[in-house]
Amino acid sequence: MTANFEVKIDDKLLKNFEKTVRKLPTHQLRVGFFDGKEEESKDGEKEPITIAAIARLNEFGDKKKRIPERPFMQQNLEAHGFYKRHLAIRLGKVIRNKSSISTQLNRLGEIMVSDTKITTTSGDFEENKKSTIAKKGSDKPLIDLGNMRANVSYRVG
User: What is the pLDDT along the chain (157 residues), one digit of tens a residue?
Assistant: First the structure.
């Protein structure tokens, strides 16, 4: 004996889920330093360098220049579980037609920028050398003029 059957799911929530999943590859949230703003040296002698380049140098360090890694972006991601819970909650709102993907990614971007600024100020980083403290007048790693911290932003595209 053979039985044939067809399963047809007519669930609005499931359809919204499918629609949302299909749209995800077209949306992207990026957090970082985008505008290519330049920071001039305090003494005015060196050429300006972009804030993005300063952030990259701080995140990954430079062994040749004896600059230690201070991975503020990575520490932030790890401290917040790579934002999986935030993203799941926000996608749930999209699936239930309570909000758009763009709106929820913008909200998550705002949270991530705020958290990155906090991590930049209070993260667990290698201390500044005495010569650096003397030069900038502070023992706070990653904080000199505050331009890097002030220019972290996000983009949704």
Answer: 445 555 455 577 677 777 777 777 778 899 999 877 666 655 555 667 889 999 999 999 999 999 999 999 999 999 998 898 998 898 888 888 899 889 999 999 999 999 999 999 998 998 888 988 888 888 888 888 888 999 999 999 8
Q: How much is the pTM?
A: 0.78
Which residue type, as a one-letter code, is found at position 41? S
In a domain, 126, yes or no: yes
DSSP H stretches of helix in the chain: 12-23, 51-60, 72-79, 84-95, 101-122, 130-136, 147-150
Phi, psi of 111 (to 5 degrees): -65, -45
Q: How many domains does the chain have?
A: 1
CB-based contact 1:126 (threshold 8 Å): no
Tokens of 113: 């920028």
Kindly report the number of other CB atoms within 10 A of residue 90's CB atom: 21
Note whether residue 5 is domain-resident: no
Cβ(143)–Cβ(72) under 8 Å?
no
Give me the domain span that covers residue 77.
12-34+72-156
Q: Examine residue 132 and state whether it is found in any structural domain, yes or no.
A: yes
Any domain includes 80: yes
